[in-house]
C-alpha cells in the first residue's frame, strides 16, 4: 500500500488528487496539509507539516509557494520524497528547492500532464529547426482564480524553446510600455485569465509567410492529478537525493 500525504488537500487540485487516490486500491491517503483543518475529510488534516508524525511514502503538493519552507523542512526531517506541483515560486525559492534536492529526493514539475510533457519535446525540436529565423510567442489561458502569471507551464515552454533555439533570448511579458519593433532574441509570453478555463498553452512560431502553432488544452484537472500520482509511485521507489521531473516518466 502506497501511503500518500496531500498538501493543499482542501483546494481544487487537492480534492481531485484525493478522489484519484481513493479510487486506487494500492493507495491510501494518510494525511493532508492545508491552512485549515477540514472536518469533512476521511484523513487528518494538519495546518503544519511538522504536526504529522506517522509513516508516508510521498507528499503530493498542490498548494502555494507560501507552503514551501514547511515542506522542505519536513522533507529534510523525515526523508519522505516530495512531489512539488505548485507554481509561482520566486527564483530564490527555486534555488532553495535545488539545495534541498542535494539532501532529499524531490520531484518538481509545473505541469503533470502527459500531453504538455510531450509538447515540450516538440517545442525543442521546432525551436532547433525554426528558432533562428522564426519569432516565438507563447499564450497561456487559465481560470480567474489563478494568482501567478505567467503560468509555470508557460515558463517551462519558454525555457525549452530558449535551450534549443541556438541564440540568446529574453522573455518579454509586457508590450504595453514599449514602442519599438520586435527583437529577434525575444520570446513573448502572454497570460489570459477568465472563467473556469482549466489550462491552455499555445506556442507560435511566426516566420516569413508561414506560422506554425502547437497547442495543448486541459479539459479537466484529472490529467494533472494522474501525473502527480504516477510521480508519487515513482518517487516511492527512489532512495537517492536529487531533483526529478516528468522527463523520467515520459519516455
Ligand atoms: N503542476 C501541475 O500540473 C499543476 C499545478 N497547479 C498548481 O497547484 C497550485 C494549487 O492549485 P489549485 O488547487 O487550483 O489552488 P487552490 O487555491 O484551489 O488550492 C490550494 C490549496 O492550498 C492551500 N494553501 C494555501 N497556502 C497554504 C500553505 N501555506 N500551506 C498549506 N496549504 C496552503 C489553500 O488554502 P486557502 O484556500 O485557505 O488559501 C488551498 O486549500 C497552484 O500553484 C497551481 O498553479 C495546478 C494544477 C496543475
Ligand atoms: O493554476 C492552475 O490551474 C494550473 N497551473 C499550472 C501552471 O501554472 O502551469 C498548470 C496547469 O496549467 C494548471
Automatic annotation (TrEMBL):
Amino-acid positions noted as binding NAD(+) in the UniProt annotation, renumbered to this chain: 8-13, 40, 85-87, 109-112
Chain residues that bind NADP(+): 41
Catalytic center residues: 142, 146
Enzyme Commission number(s) of this protein: 1.17.1.8
Record-linked InterPro entries: DapB_C, DapB_N, DapB_N_CS, DHDPR_bac, NAD(P)-bd_dom_sf
Pfam (any one): DapB_N
Keywords associated with the record: Amino-acid biosynthesis, Cytoplasm, Diaminopimelate biosynthesis, Lysine biosynthesis, NAD, NADP, Oxidoreductase
Binding residues for (S)-2,3,4,5-tetrahydrodipicolinate: 143, 152-153
Family: Belongs to the DapB family.
Name the UniProt record assigns to this protein: 4-hydroxy-tetrahydrodipicolinate reductase
Recorded name of the encoding gene: dapB
Amino acid at each position: 500500500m502506497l501511503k500518500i500525504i496531500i498538501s493543499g488537500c482542501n483546494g481544487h487540485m487537492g480534492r481531485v488528487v484525493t478522489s484519484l487516490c481513493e479510487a486506487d486500491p494500492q493507495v491510501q491517503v494518510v494525511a493532508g496539509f492545508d491552512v485549515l483543518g477540514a472536518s469533512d475529510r476521511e484523513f487528518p488534516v494538519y495546518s503544519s507539516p511538522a504536526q504529522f508524525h506517522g509513516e508516508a511514502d510521498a507528499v503530493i503538493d498542490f498548494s502555494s509557494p507560501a507552503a514551501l519552507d514547511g515542506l522542505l523542512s519536513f522533507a529534510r526531517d523525515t526523508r519522505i520524497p516530495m512531489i512539488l506541483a505548485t507554481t509561482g515560486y520566486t527564483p530564490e525559492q527555486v534555488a532553495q528547492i535545488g539545495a534541498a534536492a542535494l539532501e532529499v529526493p524531490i520531484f518538481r514539475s509545473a505541469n503533470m500532464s502527459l500531453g504538455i510533457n510531450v509538447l515540450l519535446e516538440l517545442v525543442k525540436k521546432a525551436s532547433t529547426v525554426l528558432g533562428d529565423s522564426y519569432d516565438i510567442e507563447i499564450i497561456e489561458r487559465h481560470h480567474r482564480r489563478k494568482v501567478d502569471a505567467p503560468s509555470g507551464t508557460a515558463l517551462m515552454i519558454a525555457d525549452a524553446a530558449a535551450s534549443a533555439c541556438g541564440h540568446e533570448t529574453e522573455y518579454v511579458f509586457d508590450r504595453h510600455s514599449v514602442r519599438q519593433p520586435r527583437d529577434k532574441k525575444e520570446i513573448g509570453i502572454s497570460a489570459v485569465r477568465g472563467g473556469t478555463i482549466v489550462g491552455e498553452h499555445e506556442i507560435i512560431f511566426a516566420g516569413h509567410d508561414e506560422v506554425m502553432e502547437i497547442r495543448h488544452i486541459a479539459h479537466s484537472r484529472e490529467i494533472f492529478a494522474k501525473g502527480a500520482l504516477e510521480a508519487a509511485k515513482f518517487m516511492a521507489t527512489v532512495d537517492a537525493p536529487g531533483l526529478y521531473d516528468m522527463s523520467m516518466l515520459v519516455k
